[in-house]
Specification:
The complex is a heterodimer.
Chain A (H helix, E strand, L loop, with lengths): L1 E8 L5 H7 L3 H11 L5 E6 L3 E8 L2 H15 L8 E4 H12 L11 H12 L4 H20 L9 H13 L6 E5 L3 H12 L3 E6 L3 H11 L2 E3 L4 H5 L4 E4 L10 H11 L4 E5 L16 E5 H63 L4 H31 L3 H11 L7
Parallel strand pairs in A: 5-6, 5-8, 6-7, 8-9, 9-10
Antiparallel strand pairs in A: 1-3, 1-4, 2-3
Chain B lengths: L1 H24 L3 H27 L8 H19 L6 H20 L13 H37 L12 H33 L5 H23 L3 H21 L8
Helix pairs in contact in B: 1-2, 1-4, 2-3, 3-4, 3-5, 4-5, 5-6, 5-8, 6-7, 6-8, 7-8
The chains are: A alpha/beta, B mainly alpha.
């Protein structure tokens, strides 16, 4: 059995092509079912960055052709962007994908769940089942033993992580949102997912502010009431399209007196900026604008790339383990036949011998021990040879020497 | 026997100090090794102190070296309460090298030996020296927390792009833990001073410079708690005040051999 991978990814295919080949979970499961059959196995991995078909089949060429036809049926222009990998290379590729090493953002965490989901909805047999299980394991290992996925990789998650550097746990911390545009929404999601509470949303138009408060909670306010809200807020998130300062140093300074030394973290995602940069000079106030956040993200991404080198080693080790296991499959039938033949001879000889019950039990025990000891070393050696890519030669030699050809 | 316990404890503290340094560069295994170093070192030092207590005639840590030995044990013990959490490992970088140096000084000062004789009563010294040293250990830890606060605050103010790569405990948490440590240490110092004054009145004796500095230290930390509670002093100003108090703690510790124990 060979493993074949045919797919497209963000490396070669632009989003216009990828979106045409993208499949939801249901359609991916149906395609996997359609591609499998008999002893063949299939798994379809489809995310926003890739659509990959993994097949296990007796004939690698036939499987590859089948996968290509299936992908081209989704979009005929995919041809030049398709890549094809087999066996060891296909396994290593999947392990790298699961570890987030092939992602646009190194170490992104979503892909591991997507690989797991593809496995669950695939038409797997022994080979692809083992491959995907080990891929998920490799992905987990790369994340737990390196810091590849630890630091935030987007401006909005960096803003939330910085707020945690000031307050620790964000549970119960109140957020004042200024501006109800799409830009701030991701940052709101990140803050809320870490336990922060949206206390109020201030916006020029009340309708959009109310839409946001319906989804994330809090109170919709007119912009004029920001200053009084500053006394209560721990985090201020601003992203309006106003041309001038929405909040000045003087306004914040005024609010600080009533805050009793509580720190204030301000996030300015707007261009042009909403918050007076001089606010950052005030004691206990930390203001980060879009450039500051992007600099933090660039640094964390550089850190992720450094960690990626360590993750590559882990993934390569896992791929080696899988290769050794797959290679051992070449010799397993020969080992099984050899043991079956030996057992057959032992049974035949024991049935011919005239022994009482006690003698028979003793003879059975002794012959079983002899047989096990005799076959132990050849079994080990054959598995070792299989791992070193000589497995087929050894298996053929054993079949020839012991007359097992008919049992193939 | 004391030798058998001093060197392993020193080795474990030393290992922890080096491992904390490595943990900054490659977080993970080094940090865990450091934590275990602190735990093992502290347990071995505990055994050393227990042995000293069992074999001593009177209070075994009444000398300058002895009090330093006990002081190290108290500082590391207080650190162990939360220092093992991954986020607080950076604190270990300040505490453990200090512990190693002071532990060596304690040995040089003859404070790690066995069979020490003391002319003070056990009860008085346990209460007076024990409580004052426990308070000073708390203040030392609070100073380390405040120093870490100021460093982290500076990084946030400078908007250092590496701030999420090398993560320190959150500002609010550092501020809160330092305040809590002082809130526990200050009553211990108050009681320790009260015992000393009671003995002074009972047996007579002069009021030396060290006592005066200790009272000033008490005033600084009391002022810190009052300002924090009533005037909302938090953050940078509060951290500087804690460090100012710590300077006085250092003066008292260094002044011990020349003034207090000599009287």
């Amino acid at each position: 059995m060979s493993i074949v991978l045919v797919g497209i990814s963000h490396h070669q295919a632009p989003v216009e092509l990828r979106e045409r080949a993208a499949l939801d979970r249901q359609r991916a499961a149906e395609l996997a079912e359609a591609l499998a059959g008999g002893r063949s196995e299939a798994v379809v991995l489809s995310t926003c960055n890739r659509t990959e078909l993994y097949l296990a089949d007796e004939s690698a060429d036939a499987a590859e052709e089948k996968a290509e036809v299936a992908l081209l049926a989704l979009e005929s222009k995919l041809g030049p962007a398709l890549y094809r990998l087999r066996d060891e290379e296909a396994a290593l590729h999947l392990f790298r994908v699961a570890a987030g090493l092939d992602s646009m953002i190194p170490g992104e965490g979503e892909i591991l769940g997507q690989v797991r989901a593809a496995h669950e909805s695939g038409a797997t047999g022994p080979l692809l089942d083992r491959l995907f299980r080990q891929a998920v394991q490799a992905g987990r290992k790369a994340r737990s033993q390196t810091a590849i996925g630890e630091s935030p990789a987007s401006v909005s998650s960096a803003a939330a992580a910085l707020a945690e550097q000031v307050f620790g746990d964000l549970e119960g911390r109140s957020v004042l949102v200024v501006g109800a545009g799409k830009v701030g929404e991701l940052a709101i999601r990140n803050l809320v997912s870490r336990g922060a509470t949206i206390a109020s949303v201030a916006n020029r138009t009340g309708q959009r502010a109310e839409e946001l408060t319906e989804r994330f909670g809090g109170e919709a306010l007119p912009l004029e009431r920001i200053e009084e809200e500053l006394v209560r807020a721990d985090v201020v998130l601003s992203s309006t399209s106003a041309p001038g300062w929405i909040l000045t140093r003087e306004q914040v300074e005024h609010a600080l007196h009533a805050r009793k030394g509580r720190p204030l973290f301000l996030i300015d995602l707007a261009v042009p900026r909403d918050l007076d940069p001089a606010i950052h000079e005030l004691e206990g106030c930390y203001l980060y604008d879009i450039d500051d956040l992007e600099a933090v993200v660039a640094e964390t991404l550089a850190g992720r790339r450094r960690e990626a080198a360590r993750a590559e080693t882990i993934v390569a080790e896992e791929a080696d383990r899988f290769r050794a296991w797959q290679a051992s499959l070449d010799v397993v039938p020969a080992i099984t036949s050899l043991r079956a033949r030996a057992e057959q001879i032992r049974d035949a000889e024991l049935s011919r011998a005239k022994l009482n019950d006690a003698e028979r039990r003793a003879a059975e025990s002794v012959t079983a021990a002899v047989l096990n000891k005799l076959l132990h070393l050849p079994t080990i050696r054959m598995k070792q040879a299989a791992a070193a890519a000589d497995g087929v030669i050894y298996a053929d030699a054993v079949r020839h020497l012991f007359g097992l050809e008919d049992e193939r | 026997m004391a030798e058998l316990l001093f060197w392993p404890a020193l080795l474990a503290y030393g290992e922890a100090a080096v491992a904390y340094l490595n943990d900054v560069r490659h977080p993970g295994l080094a940090g865990r090794l450091a934590t275990w170093g602190v735990r093992v070192g502290w347990l071995v030092q505990t055994a050393l102190l227990a042995l000293q207590a069992a074999r001593a005639d009177g209070f075994p840590w009444s000398t300058w070296g002895g009090s330093l030995n006990l002081f190290v044990w108290l500082v590391v013990g207080a650190y162990l309460i939360w220092g093992c959490q991954p986020r607080y490992r950076l604190l270990g970088l300040a505490v453990l090298p200090l512990a190693v140096v002071l532990f060596i000084l304690a040995r040089v000062g003859g404070g790690t030996g066995i069979g020490v004789q003391s002319h003070y009563s056990n009860l008085f010294l346990v209460l007076h020296v024990g409580l004052v040293l426990a308070a000073f250990a708390g203040f030392t830890l609070a100073a380390a927390l405040s120093a870490l606060y100021l460093w982290q605050e500076r990084r946030l103010k400078r908007r250092e792009s590496s701030i999420l790569r090398l993560r320190a405990p959150a500002l609010s948490r550092l501020d809160e833990v330092a305040a809590r440590t002082i809130a526990i240490a200050l009553p211990a110092l108050t009681l320790g001073i009260a015992v000393g004054i009671a003995r002074l009145r009972d047996r007579g004796g002069g009021f030396d410079a060290l006592m005066a500095v200790t009272v000033v230290t008490w005033s600084v930390y009391s002022g810190y708690l009052v300002l924090r509670h009533f005037a909302g002093w938090r953050g940078r100003r509060a951290a500087y005040l804690v460090l100012a108090g710590f300077v006085l703690v250092v003066v008292v510790r260094l002044g011990l051999p020349v003034t207090h124990f000599a009287t």
